Amino acid sequence: WAMICCYNAASNDPYKDSHHPRYTKLEKVEDDRILAIGYDHASRMQTEFADLNRDDTSAKSLRQNQSS
Question: Is 21 in contact with 28 (CB distance < 8 Å)?
Fold first, then answer.
């Protein structure tokens, strides 16, 4: 896969109106607010992700299974 990011200056208004939106200023929010929304969305969608704040016990369980 690929991720292509494009940026444009707020002062660079299009010369002709089209279906693309014009510049809209975004409200800056704190990181905690973004993280809270992300965790809430992930829990509603039953999404699994690497939570680096929790202890990872998956490798320990693999080691126990190999010695059996």
Answer: no
Buried b (16+ CB within 10 A) or exposed e, 17-35: eeeeeeeeeeeeeeeeeee
The CA R_g of the chain, rounded to the nearest whole Å, is: 22
**What is the 3-class SS of the chain, one letter each residue?**
CCCCCCCCCCCCCCCCCCCCCCCCCCCCCCHHHHHHHHHHHHHHCCCCCCCCCCCCCHHHHHHHHHHC
Give the pLDDT score at 34: 78
For the entire predicted model, the pTM comes to 0.31
Which is more confidently placed, 32 or 7? 32
Query: From CA 33, how far away is CA 27, in angstroms rounded?
Result: 12
